[in-house]
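Tokens in:
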């Protein structure tokens, strides 16, 4: 093997070793660009911007952290839930939890001070019903004896 062949082989090995790192850097950069352009990265999960968004992402630790910092569990926030909502939508944390189909998150939010009055319960039940989420429908229905009436309730899409 001559020195030219050895030089080409070492160059190929170096390129082969560097290529995965370069690809990760390019994809991560493109994901960052996508988050600037479309408000949603395509690789890395975005950090929740509110307790409502944390509920939509099913991020219990973030809900507890934000509650500990004094964030109001009843305050609506702009929520992005890919594959569940068409666009960023203002929702309360409870509404986001219902859309994400996690009864545990609803319980956690209630424990953190979210108010579940009859009007809110009605709206949440209608959202769960529109999503055909049997577990959440059963959870919420157990909290009331009122019949489900969704006339006039706007359902986030």
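Residues out:
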């Amino acid at each position: 093997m001559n020195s030219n062949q050895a030089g080409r082989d070492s160059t190929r090995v170096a390129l082969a070793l560097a290529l995965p790192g370069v690809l990760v850097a390019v994809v991560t950069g493109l994901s960052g660009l996508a988050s600037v352009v479309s408000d949603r990265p395509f690789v890395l999960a975005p950090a929740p911007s509110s307790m409502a968004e944390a509920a939509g992402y099913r991020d219990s630790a973030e809900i507890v952290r934000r509650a500990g910092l004094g964030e109001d569990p009843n305050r609506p926030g702009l929520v992005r839930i890919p594959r569940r909502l068409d666009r960023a939508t203002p929702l309360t944390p409870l509404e986001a939890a219902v859309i994400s189909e996690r009864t545990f998150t609803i319980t956690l939010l209630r424990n953190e001070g979210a108010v579940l009055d009859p009007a809110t319960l009605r709206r949440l039940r209608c959202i769960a019903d529109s999503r055909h989420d049997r577990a959440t429908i059963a959870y919420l229905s157990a909290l009331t004896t009122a019949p489900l009436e969704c006339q006039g309730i706007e359902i986030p899409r």
